[in-house]
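Backbone-to-sequence.
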């Protein structure tokens, strides 16, 4: 199958259904393209239903199975309704990607500056939204023999001097808690912590000089394919490096790994180097 990004998939996700929050644009759309390119079906759950419908139509035109549902992740009832619609459309859910979130400069002010109503909105979406969606998807995953939850944290979760950073630190904590709670159901829970990526929301909401500092032009920084402007399409490949696949030990027994935001990169021959508050894997995939 040729995905919406023009690449031929390997069908690793055939028969699986992914519930992707914030699926209309940016990371969520990139995840959907990557999963459908490899045979998966996707539900684009977004508060912007029109945007989600456009992305779903694009995917269907490429031969994928995709539907759009309106979903405010901060609203427990709305999440449950979106999950129910997803199950009705595809029969169940195997993967939950908690991608929806509030971010950008507004939420990087000090706690004493950010108005309380904005602070509550931030935590309702970034933290309670993860709880709502993860819990709502659990029963369907369990009934299908297990599943995978992938939470989108952030490098800001390691630099916790702002409300946004603290919200992403909380996502890391939720990842560990849910991994322990859901392990008996054969549901794995992991997180990734990307840096700034040049998605639509980031480009619209941050000063150009800040974007250039974090995401340099290819001519001024790393080769094309290694910077944020060029990796949005490729970033979802990390989903195939551990979070969505069971691994087996030497005896062939299925094992559930502990939750860790670095786990997607922990494979043989890969170790972590930490330098000036940045972490990156070294070694070969």
């Amino acid at each position: 199958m040729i995905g919406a990004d023009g690449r031929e998939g390997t069908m690793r996700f055939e028969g699986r259904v992914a519930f992707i929050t914030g699926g209309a644009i940016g990371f969520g759309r990139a995840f959907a393209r990557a999963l459908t390119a490899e045979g998966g079906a996707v539900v684009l759950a977004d508060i912007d239903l029109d945007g989600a419908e456009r992305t779903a139509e694009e995917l269907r035109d490429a031969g994928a199975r995709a539907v759009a549902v309106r979903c405010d992740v901060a609203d427990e009832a709305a999440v449950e309704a979106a999950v129910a619609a997803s199950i009705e459309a595809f029969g169940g859910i195997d993967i939950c990607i908690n991608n929806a979130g509030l971010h950008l400069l507004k939420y990087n002010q000090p706690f004493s500056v950010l108005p309380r109503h904005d602070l509550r909105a931030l935590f309702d979406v970034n933290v309670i939204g993860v709880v709502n969606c993860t819990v709502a998807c659990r029963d369907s995953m369990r009934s299908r023999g297990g599943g995978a939850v992938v939470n989108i944290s952030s490098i800001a979760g390691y630099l916790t001097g702002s409300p946004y950073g603290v919200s992403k630190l909380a996502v890391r904590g939720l990842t560990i808690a849910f991994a322990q709670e859901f392990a008996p159901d054969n549901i794995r829970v992991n997180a990734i912590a990307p840096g700034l990526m040049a998605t639509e929301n980031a480009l619209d909401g941050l000063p150009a000089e800040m974007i250039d500092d974090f995401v340099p032009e290819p001519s001024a920084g790393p080769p094309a394919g290694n910077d944020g402007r060029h990796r949005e399409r490729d970033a979802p490949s990390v989903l195939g490096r551990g979070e969505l696949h069971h691994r087996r030990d030497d005896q062939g027994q299925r094992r559930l790994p502990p939750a860790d935001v670095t786990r997607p990169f922990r494979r043989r021959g890969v170790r972590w180097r930490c330098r000036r508050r940045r972490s990156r894997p070294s070694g070969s995939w």
